């Protein structure tokens, strides 16, 4: 990120905290992102003001952190959005924090923090709540968890504008997919709202969110992770409905990903595109074609690429779209060959080449596991070896008690405090359930159960943002619908299996235990007779589900 400020930023690390301790002054931590318009605005209007910059440089140790490149710092110090402006004691504990601050607001906060430090020192600092409560409340997994989440969606559903909640409005792909199987009308109205309001009709791809209840106030940045997840979500809506109105947003987003966010040097997807000028988004197609393209962050990150791979392969499974398959295979090769080391997924391609022992981060592990299980189900069963390696490395390095830590519990500041992110634990548990079916290793299913149980005591308070928790619990308790196919990926029988039933099934290709050219349907203790044709397989699915 270009730095127009006059602030003498330090990098995140022990040296900055040692400097603060030696000078007995606080740290000013600025959390920013390359795609964050308000971050650039704060740089230009606040940190570039000479007196504010001098104040910061004289009375604080200023540290600048890119949240995409340092996710563990982001997750411990985020003040609810970006930019986050956080004041820390030299031990890394939080004095106070805010989001965007204009020049007047910054002057007031700087004076307030200086006075606080002079009068109370480190006594004013605190550890955020999520880092004080180490173990989540465990509980029993019951069908009521799924019903409670459906109730949450129904209660927060916006009958007027679609989607869930008042404002801001995010697309919430996991909630879309949960509702798709359980309340299709509510789900499809929300899909319609997302595509009508967040899809860029000119270039494709989805904007990140809207600030207002009626989906106005668009924030025009586009992120790879949310777009990858939405390709998957809209592809799954197409599976359920067969309607092009759900296939086309996925197709348009693949257009965007493969044109604008493809990093040909890395053979993978770039991380994000900044908003650019708001006025440009209102131009007609002719004028927009001549407008300057908003800048792209070419950084290649493992987790967002894994989401994109999963989304493209899901779309390919239902459409035979060769472009989606081709780009997914290329990004998957980069993930496996450049970012994966002994089951640990390096966070970025920027430092992977020089890092023989990358830091194991739960979100990256969970997303890469999902990408590989999807690939094993749709195009190449041999990648299951890498999926197993990722699962085993995650269990070995991050499993603690009955759940998983976000990363190693060491580092500067609050990084040494354990954090058990619900969303990443759920994503990993869901991936372990898939892996158990594909590999035949029931130990992964038991680890998934244990992980989901570790959070069940608080499940009645979970919001729609973690609807995937209820999805995973439902799949665990009922057992996923499994279609085993004794034929290679791409055969007529395999392609039919991918397109039958709902999106929560698991398709296992190239099965040795069945007679060649046949398929079988399973759910729990129910097992169908063999099927030899797509038509017979469809009948077997209905028999098992009825």
TrEMBL record:
SUPFAM superfamilies from the UniProt entry: Six-hairpin glycosidases (SSF48208), Thioredoxin-like (SSF52833)
Renumbered residue ranges of the record's region Disordered: 121-141, 521-546
Sequence intervals crossing the membrane: none
Record-linked PROSITE patterns: THIOREDOXIN_2
Location of the Thioredoxin domain: 1-115
InterPro entries assigned: 6-hairpin_glycosidase_sf, 6hp_glycosidase-like_sf, Ssp411, Ssp411-like_TRX, Thioredoxin-like_sf, Thioredoxin_domain
Name recorded for this polypeptide: DUF255 domain-containing protein
Species: Haloarchaeobius amylolyticus
